[in-house]
Design brief:
- It contains 30 helices and 33 strands.
- The strands form ten sheets. A six-stranded mixed β-sheet has the order 6-5-18-17-16-7, sandwiched between helices. A six-stranded mixed β-barrel has the order 25-32-29-31-30-33. A five-stranded parallel β-sheet has the order 12-9-8-14-15, with helices on both faces.
- 59% of the residues are buried.
- Helix 9 packs across helix 20 and helix 23 packs across helix 25.
- By secondary structure, the protein is α/β, with parallel strands linked by helices.
- The structure holds iron/sulfur cluster.
- Iron/sulfur cluster binds next to helix 3.
């Protein structure tokens, strides 16, 4: 059967059947005994008691392994008993499960049959244990040897007319060593086509912080949160996505600090935290978190902050002691322009736009006026909007006016969602050209890297859809389900001649593939990576810029899997036929060689093998030294930001895609979202009860959600309407199920981060 004829009928959604939902009142606290029970339940079920307890005792410990989930930093003195949270334990159980799948499984199930399962079910099948190939004329994966796999990839890459017809994606789980070797191989191959998962999450933070403060990373360290006077938590749900952050906020509260939560949803983790590591949390009342919750409407953070700044400016005009004028004079540009700009906004209009009650605004203004040590933490609730970059710049304005920058207990804190997403960028995973980096590569690696900008995630999807991207290689991740515009992205992947997934577990991107597809199974973070009897370790960079070591302890899922650096080095060796200025094979075997190269080529790394021991070391951060010499006028920049305009039609809502509590990115650990009172179901739509009344919806009505951008209707079918405390006109539903609604060509200006947190949709009853 010729390649042309076979069009695999694989589903990009899987089953949309309901799973017998149970609803309860949303919870008013996070963690507690229930959190411990859930953490152990997942571990014992997936790994068994002994294996699970052995691994949990080593997670996030100095000589242990780094949690494979979010990028929250480890405290200098980690708890020796349990330095992890419930969702960290779930992430471990998920990767270290004893469930495994091999060739027999793929003989039994075709990719078409597998694609009918839900993402949750696919993930539950277990660990991948040997390299597999899906040949053009087939719908079943079959085993392939590593060497044949490297040969097949090399042949496809060599057959391309232009290196830019190949695209190399990186997910934030990859270690510094794997990401560095991958990035250097891609450049040696001849392209900068290196989209990565941060394009879809904190790219807006990178752009906003680079232009206002001179570095695309946060400036705070963990200890700064402990002693801050005020911590603003904006567009973030730490109780589910960065749970150990609650311990830091608990310390802040116990030190007299205040917490302000800014989010359309009042999330359980920012109401009360029952820290299971102390009696008060285990059997007592826990620690109340947010002192003030501002239930801002979706994407109305700028009107909210402008209103606060206007009020602070009025107070400062009177007493000249609200803004830090010495700091502004010495380190900040744009003060007069900003103050002049603020005057033009009408307070009533700002109040209506943000939807926050006046008394809450006054409470917030009073608190911020009186305090100096202020930290702003944020996540996707600020970044995934067309004005994502401006959202972040507006909060930087607040910090600069208060002089809350470059000193202890104050500053910026974009909280990274994936354990090494920041490290991947720091060691060179980027689609844009950094000339200084290219010069160092030429000097130390002996080849001239490409000088043409490559594609980011949005660009990659478009290139594959239009047939300009022919080979797509993914270092980790579940690209199809993480990306937006699922149907368009599925078509893009199927246009490729070859797609390659370097993965630990089965997901939908293994089923919606190019004509030929390869699965290359790799290690989990918790698994031993032995070479010639020696245990090898990796390094990661946490959300606050500290580089530390991670070494696994568990027996790998199979003898036929390889570590990421090993398979990348071996592939490069085969591709260049062993003739290249870089000794890829040697690096694949000895990670110290990779780290020595990182120290020479990647900015800020220094003696990493030594300094990453123990608590590790911080990469340089100019903001911490108040060095803004790379910026215009050598000063930090205040900026003018526009009010967002969504111009909703009468029957339109703004939808934000969210995670449930049993989920990490696109990995679904379970079907519950206990903090929001939803059990055993993911196809739910959270709606304001007054909106339900005015639109004729009842609780549990089955509805279809559609977006209508550029005269194209995109629909997510069959969701149950759930009344929820959310601002009028706003909706929330889980991703990846609703990513189909987000157009590939709608993203944040300049950062191109998808608009997943403010999608204009309509809702109708399902037929
Ligand atoms: S807070 Fe993040 S890094 Fe820490 S244990 Fe939990 S999921 Fe893992």
């Amino acid at each position: 059967m010729s390649e042309k004829k076979l069009k695999r009928k694989t589903s990009f959604t899987g089953s949309t059947e309901f799973t017998n939902i149970k609803l309860e009142e949303p919870m008013r606290y996070a963690a507690g005994k229930l959190g411990v029970k859930e953490a152990l339940k997942h571990g014992f079920k997936e790994m068994g008691i002994v294996r699970s307890m052995r691994a949990l005792l080593e997670m996030n410990q100095e000589d242990g392994f780094d949690c494979p989930s979010c990028a929250w930093p480890n405290p200098e003195n980690p708890s020796t008993v349990a330095e992890y949270c419930e969702n960290g334990a779930k992430a471990l159980a998920d990767e270290a499960t004893t469930n495994k799948i091999a060739r027999q499984f793929f003989t039994k199930y075709s990719v078409e049959e597998l694609s009918q399962f839900t993402d949750y079910q696919l993930n539950k099948f277990g660990r991948l244990t040997e390299p597999l190939v899906l040949r053009p004329e087939s719908i079943h994966y079959e085993p392939i040897s590593w060497q044949e796999a490297y040969g097949l990839i090399s042949e496809e890459l060599r057959s391309l007319n232009d290196p830019n017809e190949a695209i190399f994606y990186t997910s934030g789980r990859s270690s510094n060593e794997a990401a560095y070797l991958y990035g250097m191989f891609v450049r040696a191959f001849g392209t900068n086509n290196m989209p990565d998962c941060s394009n879809m999450c904190h790219e807006s933070s990178g752009v906003a912080l680079s232009e206002t403060l001179g570095i695309g990373k946060g400036s705070t360290k963990l200890e700064d949160l402990y002693a801050a006077e005020v911590v603003l938590v904006v567009g973030q749900n730490p109780g589910t996505n960065h749970p150990r952050m609650l311990s830091a906020l608990e310390k802040c509260k116990q030190n007299g600090g205040k917490v302000i939560s800014i989010n359309p949803l009042e999330e359980a983790g920012l109401v009360n935290f029952k820290n299971p590591q102390n009696l008060k949390g285990l059997v007592g009342s826990g620690e109340d978190m947010a002192d003030i919750h501002l239930a801002v409407k979706i994407n109305q953070d700028i009107p909210l902050v402008k209103l606060i700044l206007k009020r602070l400016a009025e107070l400062d005009a009177r007493d000249k002691n609200v803004f830090d004028h010495d700091f502004i004079a010495q380190y900040v540009n744009g003060y007069d322009e900003l103050l002049a700009d603020l005057v033009q906004y009408d307070e009533q209009d700002l109040l209506e736009r943000c939807g926050v009650p006046e008394e809450k605004i006054n409470e917030t203004v009073a608190l911020l006026a009186a305090k100096e040590d202020i930290v702003v933490c944020w996540a996707m609730g600020l970044t995934q909007h067309e004005n994502g970059v401006q959202n972040i710049r507006e909060f930087v304005n607040l910090l600069l006016l208060k002089g809350a920058m470059g000193k202890p207990n104050a500053g910026t804190c974009p909280v990274r969602g994936h354990s090494n997403v920041q490290g991947d960028r720091s060691v060179g995973i980027m689609h844009y050209v950094d000339e200084k980096l290219n010069q160092r590569i030429e000097k130390h690696l002996g080849f001239v890297p490409p000088a043409e900008e490559g594609v980011d995630t949005v660009g990659a999807i478009k290139a594959m859809y239009e047939g300009r991207g022919k080979v797509f290689i993914c270092l980790g991740g579940n690209f199809l389900m993480a990306a937006n515009d699922t149907e368009y992205t599925a078509q893009a992947l199927q246009n490729c001649s070859l797609t390659v997934q370097i993965s630990t577990k089965l997901n939908r991107t293994h089923l919606v593939t190019g004509k030929t597809a390869l699965i290359l199974p790799t290690y989990g973070r918790s698994e031993k990576d032995m070479k010639d009897g020696k245990l090898r370790y990796f390094t990661m960079e946490d959300s606050m810029g500290r580089v530390r070591q991670s070494r696994g302890l568990l027996k790998p899922a199979s003898d036929h899997i390889k570590s990421e650096p090993e398979l990348i080095g071996e592939l490069a060796h085969v591709f260049f036929d062993g003739k290249h200025s870089v000794n890829w094979k040697a690096m694949a075997e000895d990670y110290n060689l990779i780290r020595q190269s990182i120290d020479k080529v990647a900015k800020g790394f220094d003696n990493t093998t030594e300094r990453s021991k123990g608590v590790g070391y911080y990469l340089p951060n100019n903001v911490r030294n108040l060095d803004f010499s790379m910026l215009p006028g050598g000063k930090a920049q205040l900026t003018l930001n526009d009010l967002p305009e969504h111009n909703l039609e009468r029957d339109e809502f703004l939808l934000m895609t969210i995670r449930s509590h049993d989920q990490f990115n696109t990995t679904i650990y379970g079907l519950d979202d206990r903090y929001r009172g939803v059990y055993n179901e993911r196809r739910v739509l959270f709606m304001n009860s007054n909106d339900m009344k005015s639109h004729g919806f009842k609780k549990m009505d089955v509805v279809d959600i559609s977006s209508h951008y550029d005269n194209k209707k995109r629909t997510a079918y069959k969701f149950l309407v759930i009344p929820y405390s959310i601002p009028k006109g706003n909706l929330a539903a889980y991703f990846p199920e609703t990513n189909v609604l987000v157009p590939y060509n709608r993203y944040a200006h300049r950062s191109k981060t998808p608009i997943s947190k403010s999608v204009k949709v309509t809702v109708v009853k399902s037929e």
